[in-house]
Amino acid sequence: MDGPGPGAAHRPQALLLNFLGSQVLDADLPPLPSSTLLDVLADLGVAEAAGRATLQRMVQRGLLARGQVGRTAEYSLTPRIEAVLRRADRRVSSPTPFEHPPGEWTLLSYSVPETQRVLRHRVRGALAWAGFGGLRDGLWIAPGTVDVAAVLGDRGLAEATGLADAFGARPLPGTDVDGMVRRAWDVPAVRAAHLRFTETWGGPPPVAGSMAQLTLLGADWLDLLQADPGLPAQNLGPDWPAAASAATYRRARTALEPAARAALERSLRATGRVA
């Protein structure tokens, strides 16, 4: 293959997590042979060696359980990864992933000592993932109501909860909410992310293989959900593209799911995992 593969924008583990979340979780399937997982990654441009190394790391991290049937390795979901995937699915599958109650915000102030730079970096990463933007030094804001203790706990940062104070907030009259949003987030970059998504998935899928198509759709969608935590459209102009992105995702997922499900069943039949 010349040049980067279609999944090059995503790490192999992120691609596998999206495959497992969209096509394996709660599907009542037997353990998956390594060939099925490696074939999906190959269709996304991931080399076999990188795919095998990713599977090994996921086993070491307790995300997958590895078994052996003859000379074939097989993998199943662990309770840990099932919990991770179900948490992600609450927003991934939401019919209104970019909407929050009007005027509802979460404010958070935290202070991590200079001597704990690694912890500070991890806290900042967890807050960004949860939709927070930096409003001022030490003050973060997110649309809607965010369970900060759960966010930090999910990332193994329970020790940081005592360093952070979070409040539900509503802007007072005279507050420049439009300006606040633009200070806390790179609004042009968020808009560009939406337009890339609708351009990519508004037409034919950019990759062959139905399982790979649905996997890449999920990975691109999750990236967009991280880029836009649900910025209020009323403060961003009448042409804000979030609603168009959500509609594009729903159409693409509905169109791709049946073929991906059939392809996965064929793959398992070919390896004798299902009758």
Automatic annotation (TrEMBL):
<dbReference type="Pfam" id="PF20803">
    <property type="entry name" value="PaaX_M"/>
</dbReference>
<dbReference type="InterPro" id="IPR048846">
    <property type="entry name" value="PaaX-like_central"/>
</dbReference>
<dbReference type="InterPro" id="IPR013225">
    <property type="entry name" value="PaaX_C"/>
</dbReference>
<feature type="domain" description="Transcriptional repressor PaaX-like central Cas2-like">
    <location>
        <begin position="103"/>
        <end position="158"/>
    </location>
</feature>
<dbReference type="Pfam" id="PF08223">
    <property type="entry name" value="PaaX_C"/>
</dbReference>
<dbReference type="Pfam" id="PF07848">
    <property type="entry name" value="PaaX"/>
</dbReference>
<dbReference type="InterPro" id="IPR036388">
    <property type="entry name" value="WH-like_DNA-bd_sf"/>
</dbReference>
<feature type="domain" description="Transcriptional repressor PaaX-like N-terminal">
    <location>
        <begin position="26"/>
        <end position="79"/>
    </location>
</feature>
<dbReference type="InterPro" id="IPR012906">
    <property type="entry name" value="PaaX-like_N"/>
</dbReference>
<protein>
    <submittedName>
        <fullName>PaaX family transcriptional regulator C-terminal domain-containing protein</fullName>
    </submittedName>
</protein>
<feature type="domain" description="Transcriptional repressor PaaX-like C-terminal">
    <location>
        <begin position="213"/>
        <end position="265"/>
    </location>
</feature>
<dbReference type="InterPro" id="IPR011965">
    <property type="entry name" value="PaaX_trns_reg"/>
</dbReference>
